[in-house]
Amino acid sequence: MTPPATNGTSRREKPPQTLPDDKAYDDFKSSSSVHYSAQGHGGGYAALRDHFYNQDTAFGDEKRSTLGLRGLLPPTHQSLATQVQRTLHQLRSKKTDLGKYIFLTSLRQTNVRLFYATIMQNAEECLPLIYTPVVGEACQKFSRIYRRPEGLTISLEDKGKVAEVIDNWPVPAGAPRIAVLTDGSRILGLGDQGWDGLGISIGKLSLYVAAAGIHPRATVPICVDLGTDNKEKLEDPLYLGLRRERAGDDEYHPFMDEVMDALNKKYPNLIVQFEDFSTERAFHFLERYQKTHRVFNDDIQGTGAVVLGGFVNAARLSSKASGRPLHDQRILFFGAGSAGVGVATQLKSFFTRQGLSDDEARERIWLCDSKGLVTKDRGDKLPEHKIHFAREDNEGKQCKSLIEAVDYIKPTAIIGLSTVPDTFTEEVLGRMAELNKRPIIFPLSNPSHLSECNFETAIKATKGTAIFASGSPFPELDYEGKHYIPGQGNNLYVFPGIGLAGALSKCGHISDEMITESALALADSVNDEEKAEGRIYPSLKRMRDISRDVSVRVIQMANKQGFTRDNGYTKGMDDEELKHWVEGEMWQPTYESFAA
Ligand SMILES: NC(=O)C1=CN([C@@H]2O[C@H](COP(=O)(O)OP(=O)(O)OC[C@H]3O[C@@H](n4cnc5c(N)ncnc54)[C@H](O)[C@@H]3O)[C@@H](O)[C@H]2O)C=CC1
Ligand SMILES: CC(=O)C(=O)O
Ligand SMILES: [Mg+2]
Fold this sequence. Notes:
By secondary structure, the chain is an alpha/beta fold. It has helices at about 20-30, 45-50, 60-65, 80-90, 95-110, 110-120, 125-130, 135-140, 140-145, 160-165, 200-210, 230-235, 250-265, 280-290, 300-320, 340-350, 360, 385, 400-410, 425-435, 455-460, 495-505, 510-525, 530, 545-560, 575-585, and strands at about 150-155, 180, 220-225, 270-275, 295, 330-335, 365-370, 370-375, 415, 440-445, 465-470, 475-480, 480-485, 485-490. About 45% of the residues lie in helices and about 10% in strands. The chain has a seven-stranded mixed sheet, with helices on both faces. A five-stranded parallel sheet has the order 1-3-2-4-5, with helices on both faces. Helix 15 (about 300-320) crosses helix 16 (about 340-350). 1,4-dihydronicotinamide adenine dinucleotide binds next to helix 15, helix 16 and strand 7.
């Protein structure tokens, strides 16, 4: 019989093993796979240095005796809660955000459970430090702040031997459930960071654990290093990646095939999240592997879902203020890359769900890129991904600037995914407020300093009417006697739940419908209290509840489409039972054996 769920809340027996990696994953949850003992001396010392096993001052008397820890620890016993207090004290004493990032990284590499307990209990303070915006600066300086190796690097030098490299990953075959894989070529809006982009895979996977309870040992941060075109890095003696220009498609594509096939072979239940690939490759690899491997692209699909989720709630507020029908939205994108087009594609479903045809939905969306409004007759060769949304009804009109496009289109919503800061100027925002009682303003570029505008500017320039969400967090604001809370339109709200759903129900495929369902679940997860505060996204303090709700709905859609591979286990559950089961499967950062 397989071990019980992590915190023993499942009401059913686990289903019979359907794929070879079930047991390996369950072993993580029920115990440490390494058993330390004092015999032979040094066992206690090794236990303190195993970041999954270490409890530091929380090791109780019994363990201190059996492991040979006496003398290696201070005499006082402390609880995890007290350790979190000390951690916060130390964290807050760091003078810079990068210093805080380095401190938290060291903690993760020393004591995994203390790291996650601290993050989860202090989400609003800690998420910006391990994720956007600070992870951006960390990736820019990743080689420089490097202390210990983390994650898996598969470099072009491993061509032909990728499977051997994957064999070195220190967990049993089949146990890993989620990989975040980047090639470092477009890290947030910061361009090519080469191998240093590994920091984004580590950051995203920390959120998988904190927000969705994926077991930390079942996560694999991966950087495929195919060189970099970042000259500064190539010239930096401290840079740790391959010192060569980025490979061309001839080398790239077969190498990626080898990586994907080797991962698939060794880890049959692994879900691979593609992250921060440059535009063309992001689209190419999604299309190439979507039907054959368990993959999704976070920037195209995750961002699409998170914006759809927020937009559903924003449109309700906007429609209530204007008295116009819900579908009467005109959406202008500023930025037409992987995220812009990914979101535009997903937002079409906002309209089609209200009865508009596919063409009518498309006509409610306009794209602007670095050359202006994307039209079929503007005179340049459009890349494949922009063609679907390129306008033909512009009667020769070309808009070169955003304000010109706003005047021409009269949008109800502007969505920034351009990487160009401060482009939602006071003039643009003021015009949006003239056109709309509640304009929807989503400056989504990351990190914070690349946001198309900040919260304060948006609120002041629209006289408090903006319905706002940004990619990176901004502080709350008091303006003319009223309190305003910004939304964070960041894929962090959905990718943990999508991945958890795939991991638990062992999906053979992550479909577009499953991604859309994650968006609708996110929209529904805003509770009455949050609605009363004017929020369009739920509070991140509830990140585990949100991921659970997203995961349940994604599993239900996967069952509907026949993509789960759990022998009908989840299909047999009603809503409540599934919710309860998903929650019970989430890993918790606790010291089960703590005894003061
Ligand atoms: N909030 C979120 O969850 C997410 C935010 N992003 C952010 O979105 C931004 C873009 O990401 P991708 O689409 O993947 O990049 P990308 O490189 O594929 O696309 C950038 C787009 O911006 C356009 N652009 C560049 N300069 C411009 C200008 N001066 N005026 C108008 N358009 C301009 C480009 O033509 C291109 O269409 C990044 O900052 C990224 O961090 C990306 C994914 C998720
Ligand atoms: C959030 C994210 O995935 C990005 O900015 O690329
Ligand atoms: Mg990204």
